[in-house]
Write a structure and sequence with these properties.
The chain contains 9 helices and 17 strands. The chain is an alpha+beta fold and about 375 residues long. The protein is elongated, with a radius of gyration of 28 Å.
Length: about 375
């Protein structure tokens, strides 16, 4: 009798172990639908353990909007949003579908959007209509088109997709990007910066331009510009980018030495400035920026936007404010400032260890108020 009870007890325990150790859900399907404004609608389906009354599902992103949770019968379920996902009152459901929108999976530099995802399963990405893929972390499993949208199936893990919306590859845009890189390379070389990698890519951009392949020329010029702005750094997916094959990556030892040097200099500068607080005040002027821009149609659109920003700020801003406003690398912002300085529109003064960028008094519509 005792032996029978013992055997039955062991049997119940062995039956119960899988239920205790098993996950309460299994990822089943994941789709990201992208829109022109950078919003992403995520559809996440999981197979749930019906014996659980509540199930917590981690979600991608950190800002969740318009969340909807339904079960296999299409019935909406209650949920509670938590820091890294949702706690769902599953009530014995065997399949859950979570749909939500988020804006923090995508980022934008210039015209290029990038979405970054870390998926537990193979997943699909539906790109906006009239978009062009310009970069992938991994080759897609499948590619298809529906309703004018490209659909990629990508392998699980961390993946990035970069794309542009609207017409790409115009002759004028390619010419502008190549000219911008040429200017940046000339300035970098004058400072003794090694830009050999950027020059190699720029040369290929010129070749593509001469062959009237303007999209390829523009992409190569953008990559060369990135190298000028961040010397020694190549795109993380350069080996998978057919436009950039053949460009050698810098040795790891060189990158490590450069990083060590940058950290050492940064630490020294912080120690030097530690404890020193300099208060700086700026003068506010009424600026008629439209009058200043009259007759200057040759100015680049980004230069005009920078002037308008400085004018609205009272005629002067710190270089750091300009970089933050337009999300510009330091070298790009400085080249913009120097261009406008050569136009006779700006002047730069050193104030409290910072560059104060000012619209020149002699072209201002109004003088500082007394």
């Amino acid at each position: 009798m005792v032996r029978t009870i013992l055997l039955l007890t062991l049997l119940f325990i062995s039956i119960g172990i899988p239920q205790v150790l098993a996950d309460d859900y299994t990822p089943h399907r994941l789709v990201f639908t992208l829109y022109d404004d950078g919003k992403t609608v995520v559809e996440y389906e999981v197979l749930a353990d019906a014996s659980h009354a509540t199930i917590k599902i981690p979600l991608l992103g950190s800002l969740y909007e318009t969340i909807l949770v339904i079960n296999e019968r299409g019935l909406p379920l209650d949920y509670h949003v938590e820091k890294d996902g949702v706690l769902i009152d599953s009530l014995g459901s065997s399949q859950l579908r979570i749909t939500y929108s988020t804006s923090d999976l995508t980022s934008k530099i210039g015209r290029i959007w990038t979405i970054k995802m870390d998926s537990p399963i193979d997943f699909r990405v539906i790109l906006p209509a009239d978009s062009t893929i310009v970069g992938l972390t991994s080759p897609p499993i499948t590619i298809s088109v529906a309703d004018g949208r490209q659909i990629l199936t990508l392998p699980k893990g961390v993946q990035e997709v970069s794309y542009m919306i609207g017409p790409v590859g115009s002759k004028e845009e390619a010419m502008l990007r190549i000219s911008e890189v040429e200017e940046g390379i000339a300035e970098a070389k004058a400072k003794g910066v090694n830009v050999a990698d950027a020059e190699a890519i720029l040369q290929r951009a010129r070749q593509e331009f001469e062959a009237a392949r303007y999209f390829q020329a523009e992409m190569l010029a953008r990559e060369a510009k990135r190298l000028v702005d961040e010397p020694g750094r190549l795109s993380p997916n350069i080996s998978d980018n057919p436009l950039l094959i053949g460009i050698a990556q810098p040795p790891v030892a060189t990158l490590l030495l450069g990083l060590l040097f940058a950290l050492t200099i940064g630490f020294a500068l912080r120690r030097r400035k530690k404890g020193v607080v300099i208060e700086v005040s700026k003068t506010f002027r009424q600026i008629d920026i439209q009058k200043i821009l009259e007759g200057r149609d040759h100015l680049r659109p980004d230069d005009r936007e920078a002037l308008e920003f400085i004018g609205q700020a009272g005629g002067e801003v710190f270089e750091s404010e300009l970089r933050e406003k337009f999300k510009l690398p330091r070298s790009t912002a400085w080249r913009m400032i120097k261009r406008l300085e050569r136009e006779g529109l700006l002047e730069v003064r050193k104030v409290g260890g910072q560059n104060l960028v000012m619209i020149r008094d002699d072209i201002s519509a109004d003088k500082p108020p007394t």
